Amino acid sequence: MSDSAGFNIDDLINAAAAIEGGEAQEVKVDQIMGKVRRLLQGKRALEEEIKAIQSLGDSLRKELETVQIEAYQLEENHKEKEELCRKLQFQCDESERDSARQIEQNKKRDELLEQYRCEIQEIELKQRKQRYLTFRKQHLNFKH
C-alpha cells in the first residue's frame, strides 16, 4: 500500500534489511528520514486542514442555529399575521354586512319619506281644493 507521499510498507522492510549494509544503510536512512519529514509535514498540513474544517463546521452549525431561530421567529410572525388577517377579514365582513344593512334601512327611510311627501302633497291639494270650493261657495252665496 502506498500513500500520497510515496511511502509504503515495502520501503520500511527494505530499510530494515539495508541497515546491515553499511553505506547503503546511510542512504536508506536519509531517504527514510526525508520521507518521514514529508509525512510529518503532510500530517501537520492535514491537521491544520482538519482544524480549518472543524472551525468552518462550527461556524456553519452556529449559522444553522441562527437561521433556525430566525425561521422559528418568522413562522411565529407569520402565524400572528395570519391570525390578524383572519380578525381583519372578519371585521371587514361585519362592516360590509352593517353597511349593507344601513343602506337597506336608508332606502326604506327614503321610500317612507317619499311616501310621506306624496301624502302631504295630497293633503295640501285637498285642502286647497276645499278652500277653493269653500271660497267659491261663499262667493256664489254672496252674489245671490
Automatic annotation (TrEMBL):
It comes from the Eukaryota. One of its GO terms (biological process) is synaptonemal complex assembly. InterPro entries: SYCE1. Pfam families: SYCE1. Residues 36-129 form a coiled coil. One of its GO terms (cellular component) is synaptonemal complex. Keywords: Coiled coil, Meiosis. PANTHER family: SYNAPTONEMAL COMPLEX CENTRAL ELEMENT PROTEIN 1-LIKE. Belongs to the SYCE family. This is Synaptonemal complex central element protein 1 isoform X1.
